[in-house]
Task: structure prediction
Amino acid sequence: MKRSFSSFMTRQDMVGFAILAVVIFVLLPISLDTFRLNLFGKYLTYAFVAIGLVLCWGAGGILSLGQGVFFGLGGYCMAMFLKLEASTPENTSIQSTPGIPDFMDWNQLTALPAWWEPFHSLAFALFAVVAVPVFFAFIIGVAMFRRRVGGVYFAIITQAFAAILTILIIGQQGYTGGVNGITDLRTLKGWDIRTDEAKEILYYVNGVMLFVVLFAAQFIRKSKLGRLLIAMRDQEDRVRFSGYDVAAFKIFVFCAGAAFAGIGGAMFTLQVGFMSPTLVGIVPSIEMVIFCAVGGRISILGAVYGALLVNWAKTTFSESFPELWLLGLGALFIAVVMVFPNGLAGVYSEHVAPRINRLFNKSAADMAGAKTPAE
Amino acid sequence: MFSDYSMGELGAIFAMQGFAGLILFSVFVLMALGLAIIFGQMGVINMAHGEFMILGAYVTYLTSNFFSAYIPALFGMYFFVAMALAFLASGALGLFVEWAMIRHLYKRPLDTLLATWGLSLILQQIYRSVFGAREVGVTIPDWMIGSLPVTDMIEVPINGIFVMVLAVGISMAVYYMMFRSVWGRQVRAINQNRVMAGAVGINTEWTDRLTFGIGCGVAGVAGSAFTMIGSTGPTAGQLYIVDTFLVVVFGGAASLLGTIASAFSISQAQSIMEFFLSGSMAKVLTLLTVVGILMLRPQGLFALKLRK
Amino acid sequence: MSDKSKSITNTQVSRRAVLAGGAALTASLFAPKHLRAADFPTEAVNTTGLAVTDDTVTIGILHSVTGTMAISETGSVQAEKLAIEQINAQGGILGRKIEYIQEDGASDWPTFAEKAKKLLVNDKVASVMGCWTSASRKAVLPVFEQYNGFLYYPTFYEGLEESPNVIYTGQEATQQIIAGLDWVAKEKGAKSFYLLGSDYIWPRTSNKIARKHIENFLDGAKVVGEEYYPLGHTQFNSVINKIRLKKPDVIYAIVVGGSNVAFYKQLKAAGIDMTKESPIVLTISVTEDEIRGIGGENIEGAYACMKYFQSLENENNAAFVSAFKEMWGDDMVIGDVTQAAYLGPWLWKAAVEKAGSFDVDKVRAATPGIELTSAPEGYVKVHENHHLWSKTRVGKAKLDGQYEVVFETADLVEPDPFPEGYQ
Amino acid sequence: MSTSNPNFVLMVEGLTVSFDGFKAVNDLSFYVEPNECRVIIGPNGAGKTTVLDLICGRTKATSGSVNFKGQELLNMREDQIVHAGVGRKFQTPSVYEDLTVFENLELSYPKGHGVFGALTFRRDDQVKARIKEIAETIFLDDQLDEKAAYLSHGQKQWLEIGMLLIQDPELLMLDEPVAGMSVAERKKTAELLNRIIQDRSVIVIEHDMGFVEDIATRVTVLHQGKTLSEGSMERVQNDPKVIEVYLGH
Result:
């Protein structure tokens, strides 16, 4: 047991996870008011996407510029459930067809479309939050990876998907809420998600979900599959001729990334209170890549810090110097690529960790002696 | 849909619709040529392509203001000066960007993509600070406005003809440069075998820089031409980016002819669908078709089958 | 700074001229000289913990300064700042100077919601001037309702909304559409219409109302085509050919943003000379602001249906235009929304002074029936449904980028955000 | 056509591939017996590497048949061909530079090759013992925990051979295994190859004639995508056609 755990997580990993847990569950809640905490909760939902990107891009070399699609699909699935709950016949009595979401009424729909019906069920909605993004990722993955589309081509085609989905959502406003998105979400099974208390609870739920995803990602990375991804990135042919079906692995990791993004999207909807096509398109999709790059594309913990840091900077800078924000963001992109290709995690492991290790090892030497040797 | 019209009217409409498809084709060619040079020959993804185009548009705007303020007599001719200046400005910026950024990233195409996206954000903000957030209105010389009546019913927009002539001209110029000039030979040599090209005395560093510069310059000319048909604002470049990439990728990255063929097929598909369907659905269907075909044939329309 | 104070003196002079001219006296114009903060102790005028001190009151400005919407929203920010400065020069509200906190929505709806919440929860602003697109308003609406904020929203929009926490200073769809269609049918004898728009809720809802009106209320008129293009679309040659095929009397265009520029340039280039009025181009989405990007020569002859044009001839407007240019530069143009945004602070001031309190509930109660005789568009009045009574006007675009007003309704048009028979 | 013949492990018949009309391999046939070491030689561009690519599925053939122990390989995916028992070493050493020698070998261990197999793969004692054994064979048992990036060129070649050995293929295909090696390394490699070709069939592409003589059971000479000559080293060396196009130069 001990042995398998140590291959799952080194001592250094454990320290990293513990620090992050302290930051998310202790430091942020005690130092921030509910409003700021909710904001950080929103930032953390992007971390879900960034973690998925670490697996796909950092480990597997598959750069998707369409992660917003999966984030959006997850978010929309959640939003559809909440919208249906908010659209009771009593709440919507002024509409010509009470009981359907307001935007449908404005678009002359007189009945709920059939594909909305299952979203009356929370269980189905939660299932869909993961299943719908994974389904689309699977289709895209099979089509692309079986035909060995990769690299830049994959990036551009996924970007086109982001564009297509945005146009579709905006164009089919009777069914999707159009450019306004699905707004005015109120309760989850009767529990008002807009109160301060609910926001705090949702923040913690979000934190727990994030750790679930982090552990899943850690499990994948530390399994043989994780090493295979790195191997594929460097020598795809060699992996193939060692008897692996490379496409299947890529499809798997792409689907995993999509599932993470979908969960993030659902948490976004819950915390922010609406979902709109602006979170699906090309620009947010690329921004999600930069969260991952800033954190360090090879580190799942780095991805979380990257998402937090960039979004915090975005909020802070755009409050004080809105005009400079884009310059800053652009410079950040360039700097991360040219100067810190391994992002925060790289800076940490190259400059900070060695020093900490020196300190840590001295005191840890005694402890290690007390422990039963693991290997 | 057509029962109320005479054959003559229908014929005229279809002729004009065919012409609309050709204009769209020319627009696509202009958008994509610069990118095709850069992506096809160097493997670099330039996400700031749209911003290089908009630089050309702003140069055109400045030139038109200069002419109307100082030499109004020659105003009708300013557009040609503007295009040359647009080429030089975007090209010069391209040379600089290659030197400062791209050359460090040749082995990391995905990273180039991110870095140039960062560049595009910076350029957008610079345009916004310099020219304001609003679109600027570029005054077009009178002779370029309006249309030529070919028959009683068929009218052909002059700026459309201009864009077409320009697209043909630039394609020919690029073709000539690629296949007849020393630079073209060097570019192709580097594309095939960088180490060997360097060994036989080709200055690969300078050739790369020049290639990137020329690609950006062509984008600038395209941007200059687009002031006639589209808007000139800090974020206008973003409108073109998805279409441009799809045209290049669909054509098969390494082939100029492929780019032109792909521009032709996408523009015709879009123009025909736009005529029979509503605008948004036409766009979605065009994109889906292109993506669908790319999934079946990822190497694009015109990639050569090569020994691996 | 001296420039600005001079401009304010000018407007005061002209406002006095308005008064002398016998216009109705309103609280907002006449009262300031008598209101001193000391007469309104803070604990009395602010019982809900808003950001009100003994000599200041803080409000929020929430628009996009960056991103794609910055183009459109800049004018609104400028107008709101001008109004605030003018109000302060007159002594403020209840003897308190207005201070503002400006936040950037960055053309991103979640950011709007986030910043709205910050303004209401952290900054405790007494009211907010802000939003431009419907999407941003929809995003902030739950926030305003939850925290009982008060928003002044300047844009003409699709209607279908009536929030207790929003005052809509722009027109809802019927106010902008119906009078214009009636006019073009009566004056120009138009019978067939081609409806065209960018693909999102405002053009679609507006065209729906237009279609109902054309088919049900205009004698013998019909809609011969309806089309939507994605936001940012730049190629309109195909639809122009379709229009040729249908030969409508009127092209009713609600294209927005960068698409606008492309549409009019290509329409002109395709040989459709709008000055010949065959077909007539009627739009509700092109203000003077947009013409700057399109170019006067490309849209000359088109008609726009708005409640305000910069060229409007009245003393209020003359003062407003000159003050605006003094503050923001001579090359500024002022569109419909900019004027509507300018009304926001003045309407709020009038409501606060009528209520004698900054409390949102009291201001809300005082708001219906508030009148502004000093409005650049002439005279407006707040309806029970939180929209404004205002006139509808039709302008004809000129080469210089201004509109020539060719028609205005005789009476104020009643706002009707949920129009019966149009849904 | 492709009836299985127990006398042959591999039967290549009428194999053809054309790239835009250029036939890189043209109607090629040859047969490999169990435990045979077949060396393919030929001038540059003769199609040697392409033949290996065709057998292991890296390049799709235009026509012909490749029969391995009764299975038609041309319809199979690369990984399926590997599982059928064909191993392939590339011309330039291709090892996973970011992983350690141990991990490189572990990934080639023939277990856990499906997605879920890979997720649940455990590094048990049997795996460790096997890796240790292979590492000793390829002279790398001291470098197990080193990243592959830090190995010398020759060591990388050995590592790749080790990665094939751990799969225990019945047919091993090596593309220029001694290219770029020092004399000492070359000698060690020949020794290694002689040891590992004992209990399997091997196809080797090689230029170094001394080395070929050391290991070859039979030699096939390719020229312009076709067999020019086939037989023992001695016979091939004395074939006038071969002398003309290849050895004579």
User: Anything to note?
Assistant: The interface with chain D takes residues 4, 7, 219-220, 223-225, 227-228, 230-231, 233-235, 237-246, 248-249, 252 of chain A (CB under 8 Å).
